[in-house]
Amino acid sequence: MSYDWLLFLHVLSAFTMVAGAALFMGTLLALRRKPDTVIAARIAPAATILWGVGSLAVIVFGVWLAFHVSIYSITDGWIIIAIVLWAIGGAIGGNIGRGYSALRGGGIGSMELNRLTIMNVVLAIVMLAILYDMIYKPGAG
Amino acid sequence: MLLIRPDSWNLPLILHVGGAMLLVGSLALATLLFIQSWREREPETSSSLFRFGALTMFFAVLPAYILMRIGAQWVLSREHLENSNATWIGIGFGASDFGALLLIISLILCGIAVRRVNRGGAAGKLAKAGGGIALLLIALYVIAIWAMTTKPS
């Protein structure tokens, strides 16, 4: 596969991952407006799917790109930072998805809601950090 | 994302790409809510879903579009490409400007529908139109992402 197509698929996967995070945030806002709302239960499953597909695809195409482009190495500092941030984001996203799965069995308590709020904020910060790392590429060139 | 570029391009680029990500993410949320709204048989739930989708269009999609567009113009000026005839820039402008038109139409329809819903009516076909336009916008932005990354000559 050419560099252009790998980059397109990598960036498209990143957009899918961010769409998943946006849906996680939408679920949270729906829950905070009206606890036990049916709206949250409608958004959460799609959020988990988008997040899962996007985060898996972004790392596959990202690592493929790192091997494909001769000036990049998988051991470059900014690539290692990106992988670490991706792993942290993946763990947080997975945790949020599991938290929302309680919607199927009924409601979410206020303690759990506060925990999910913190998780969503941390996930947004991690996503911003990944974007910063991808664009500024600290330590490269 | 791209190979090494001058540092002065990075801030506008992060605004442009970050805005575009927020735009597509919030559009995905609004689209899902509109689709769920028109599939819902319970009128009150359908109205709630539509209202939340419309609020997403006003308070997330519109600001994200503005952020993406300002970033795009800023990065173009930094790269001195304002007068470029490159195909990928043309596709980007096309997606952005046609997207703006669709977004304005969608916001007007959402505004009318929200007023109707707040008076106890149903969003009805306006929810379908809102979802359809939001889906069209996502398709348009996927084409823009393809053009921005593959840069066809």
List the topology elements.
The complex is a heterodimer of chains A (141) and B (153).
Chain A: H1 3-33, H2 38-68, H3 77-100, H4 110-136
Chain B: H1 10-39, H2 43-78, H3 87-118, H4 125-150
> DSSP helix count of chain B?
4
Considering residues with a beta carbon less than 8 A from a beta carbon on another chain, report the largest interface and each chain's count. A-B, 34 and 34 residues
Low-pLDDT segments, ≥5 res of chain B: none
Give unreliable regions of chain A as ranges: none
Give the termini separation of chain A: 25 Å
User: Approximately how much beta-strand content do the residues of chain A carry?
Assistant: under 5%
Number of strands of chain B: 0
The helix-and-strand class of chain A reads: mainly alpha
Helix content of chain B: over 70%
Query: Structural class of the helices, strands and pairings of chain B?
Result: mainly alpha
Order of helices and strands of chain B: HHHH
Q: Give the number of domains of chain A.
A: 1
What is the H/E string of chain A?
A: HHHH
* Biggest sheet statistics of chain B: none
Compute the CA-based radius of gyration of chain A: 17 Å
Main pleated-sheet profile of chain A: none
